[in-house]
Amino acid sequence: MVSLDDVSRTSEPVRGRRRWTTRPRRAVGVLTALVAFAAGGGLGAAVTADRGGSAPAAAATGEARSLTDALRGSRGAARAGHVPDSLAPGTAAPTTGAGADGVPPTPTTAPPAGDAADPDLTEADLASGLLAAGVPESASGDLVVVPGSDPGPGVGDVLTVRVEVEEGLAVDPEAFAAFVMTTLNDPRGWGGDGSLSFARTDRPADLRVVLASPTLVDRMCAPLQTRGQVSCGRGGHATLNFRRWVEAVEDYGTDRDSYRRYLVNHEVGHLLGHPHATCPGSGRRAPVMQQQSYGVGACTPNPWPFPGRDG
């Protein structure tokens, strides 16, 4: 059975709606910071597979080095899971193309789907749960559990997954939850070798997949620096940045559907204990644990752990 970290009670949606608190937890914070420092060369360095010195901070006015330079200057690949795709202070964000981790809590009602979806959204956008293309920097700060359950294929070790969405985002929660689960249980996904499968629940679970605004992502991923741009998989939750869910990244072009599947698989991969990987060679598929949000380098984009299996 895959061993997963326990989830802190302060991060659980509870009866009614509960806001995230920013009260420091000194011991946990220090331990997490030490793990992050050992894994990624310090909180001020982008976690990447290249070797070199740590990236310096840039002035708050935005005089930052390019993301490529920052990645080239970071310290080394992580050797354990639960590592976020953090940004060094002052580094540029991933670029986007023009088209492109006791008593069970009572699940609250999922946020309403709202009015008609943005007519500019594609069918793939709608299937991922998007209802509008705008990206708010923050929403309510309240996480809401998507109600419902699904046993999944029941193959191998079965891990339970709870899907949550920040209230106030323009998202159809049921569509988002379905997208997450079909991605995880795809034959090309983490269970593609028959070792495990995923079952959705709205009760306490082995892991959580959360879609949140940039501001809430930064809080959930702290002390690691997501800087409103990237996501993380740590502490039992894979927290997906709504900015990346909407905009994807340049290397995936207009194929935002594939990038979203990469995002789910990559961050859940950290919860399963997988560290970052590097491009194996020019023209080859990028490993799903490569930090593809920063670019695929000489590789080609790939959202799947087992891409050779039939989808």
Automatic annotation (TrEMBL):
Annotated transmembrane regions = 27-47
* Record field: compositional bias (Basic and acidic residues): 1-15
Q: Which residues form the DUF3152 domain?
A: 134-296
Q: Which residues form the signal peptide?
A: none
UniProt keyword annotations, A-Z: Membrane, Transmembrane, Transmembrane helix
Bias (Low complexity): 88-103
Q: Which InterPro entries does this chain map to?
A: DUF3152
- Keyword rRNA-binding (UniProt): no
Indicate yes or no for the key word Transmembrane: yes
| Start and end residues of each stretch annotated as Disordered | 1-20, 69-120
What name does the UniProt record give this protein? DUF3152 domain-containing protein
